[in-house]
Amino acid sequence: xxxxxxxxxxxxxxxxxxxxxxxxxxxxxxxxxxxxxxxxxxxxxxxxxxxxxxxxxxxxxxxxxxxxxxxxxxxxxxxxxxxxxxxxxxxxxxxxxxxxxxxxxxxxxxxxxxxxxxxxxxxxxxxxxxxxxxxxxxxxxxxxxxxxxxxxxxxxxxxxxxxxxxxxxxxxxxxxxxxxxxxxxxxxxxxxxxxxxxxxxxxxxxxxxxxxxxxxxxxxxxxxxxxxxxxxxxxxxxxxxxxxxxxxxxxxxxxxxxxxxxxxxxxxxxxxxxxxxxxxxxxxxxxxxxxxxxxxxxxxxxxxxxxxxxxxxxxxxxxxxxxxxxxxxxxxxxxxxxxxxxxxxxxxxxxxxxxxxxxxxxxxxxxxxxxxxxxxxxxxxxxxxxxxxxxxxxxxxxxxxxxxxxxxxxxxxxxxxxxxxxxxxxxxxxxxxxxxxxxxxxxxxxxxxxxxxxxxxxxxxxxxxxxxxxxxxxxxxxxxxxxxxxxxxxxxxxxxxxxxxxxxxxxxxxxxxxxxxxxxxxxxxxxxxxxxxxxxxxxxxxxxxxxxxxxxxxxxxxxxxxxxxxxxxxxxxxxxxxxxxxxxxxxxxxxxxxxxxxxxxxxxxxxxxxxxxx
Length: 614
Known about the structure:
This protein has helices spanning 36-40, 44-47, 60-75, 122-144, 163-169, 180-186, 192-205, 249-271, 290-296, 300-303, 316-330, 377-412, 421-452, 464-481, 501-517, 549-552, 576-586, and strands at 17-21, 29-32, 81-88, 94-105, 111-120, 147-153, 159-161, 207-215, 221-232, 238-247, 275-280, 285-288, 340-345, 351-363, 366-375, 460-463, 485-488, 496-499, 524-531, 535-542, 590-595, 601-610. It is an alpha+beta fold. The strands form four sheets. Strands 16, 17, 18, 19, 20, 21 and 22 form a seven-stranded mixed beta sheet that branches. α12 (377-412) packs antiparallel against α13 (421-452), α14 packs parallel to α15 and α15 runs antiparallel to α17.
C-alpha cells in the first residue's frame, strides 16, 4: 500500500520550490523540495546541514528590510505574507526570487515553523526593469517635448498630472494638488468658451482637441495643446478622461510672427506700383498683388488657379506653354533672368506694352516663377510723341540748314572773290556752328530710327581688320588737324565677325573722334584688335585726361557730356556714345570702357567671333 501524498510532493518537479524554515537564529532550513537544485543549485541535503542558515544566502542589501518585515508579520500573527528579494545561488550569482510565506502557529500561539513557496522572479524583475527604462525614456521624451499626460475621474472629480504638466503650469507637485477647479482658474479668460465647446464636443465624440492659453502663477501667458479621449462605462456614460498637454508657446509665437511677417509682406506687395505675379511650373497663377489686378483689370479670384497665358494676346497665348516646357527640359530661356518689353492683354481685350522681369525660385522641391510687370503704355505714348516731335523738327531743320551751309561754304571757298578778314571770321563761326547743328540733327534722326526700329542693318560675316583700317583712314584728317598720331597696334588677321559694316564704322569712328578730341597735341591714339574664344574686342586707347568718376555712370546716356557748360573746349552732341551703344547691341555686341583720371581712357566693343565657314 502506497503512502499518502504530502503537500511538498506537489512541488517536487514544478517551478515552485517549497522550503520549511524555523524562526530561530539564522533561519535554519527544516525541509526543501528537490527542485531547489534547479532554482539555486543547492542539493536539499546541503540546506538541511546544521551549519547552513537560510539567512546567510540573502543579499545583504535586502536582509535588513526582510528581517524587519518578518518580525512585523510574525508579531501581528499574519497568516500569510509575500516577499521579493535576492538570494545567492551556489555558483555565487544572486538571483531575484519571490516567496509566499505561511507561518505555522502552535497551541500557545507561538510560531513553530514557516512554509515558504519560492519561484524564480528574475524574468519578471527584468521585465519590470525594462518597463522602468521605457517609462524613464518616455518621461524624458515628454519632458524634452514639453508634453505631459493626465487622467481625470469624471465621477469623483479627481485629477492626476504627470510631472511635466506641473512644469508646464508652473506648479510644485509637493505643494500643489491638481483639480478641475485649479485647471479652470489657469485658463485664459478669452479662451474659456473655446475650451468649454471642445469639452462638450468630447462628451459626444469621445475626443477633446483644442489649443488655448493658460496663465501661470507668475502672470506669464503660455500656449498649450490639449488632446484627450474618454472612457465609458457599460451604459455608455463617460466616466474617465485620459489626455496630454503640450506646451506649444514657441511654436505658436513663431506661427504668429510668421503670420505677421506675411501680412507685412503682403501689405508691401499690395502697395508697390509694379504688378507681381507668381506661377508654378505648370504655368498656373498662384498669387498676384493689387497692382497686377489693376493693370490687367481682373480680380484675384478670376486669375488664381488659371494658366497665366490668359493675360497674353496671340500668338504668345498659344506659344507660352511650349516655351515653358522647353525651358523646363533644356534650360533655354528667352525672358527668365532678363528684363524685356512684351505685350499683354487686359480683361477687356486691350493689348498694351509692358515691361516684364521674371526670376526663378525653388519652393517645396519645385520650381516657381516670379514675374514683375509694369504697364508702360503712358511712357510709350510719351516716347512716341517725343520721337515724332524730334523727327519732325529734325526734318524741318535739315532743308533750310543745307541751304545755309552750302552758300557759306562757297563764300569761304572764294566763289565770289576775296572776303574781308573780319567777314571771313564771322563766316567761319557760322559755318562751324551750322556743321555742328547738322551733326546734331543727324544724330537725332539716328536715335529716332533706332527707337522706332526703323534703322536697317545689313548683317553679314566679314573680316574685322579691313573695317578697323577703314575707320582709322576716315579719322585721319581729324587727327592730322589736331596733330594727334593714330596707331594700329595689335592685329588679328583673318578674324571674322558678323556685323553691319557701315554701322560698325559708325561705332569705331565715334570712339576715334572722341579719343582724338581729348588727346593733347602730339599725343597718340592706339587701336588694338584682340581675339578671344567667342568674341573679338576692338579697343581704342587715348592718353588724354581720362573720364571723371562722377561722370562715368552717365557716359552712355543721351546728351551726356563731362563738360556741359556753354564754354566747353570740345564740341559734340552728347549722343554719339548712346548711338554707338545701341548699334553695338543691335549687332549682338556690347561696348564698355576703362578709365582712370589722368591716365587716359580705353573704349571697346566686343562682337561675336565667327568661325570660318559659318
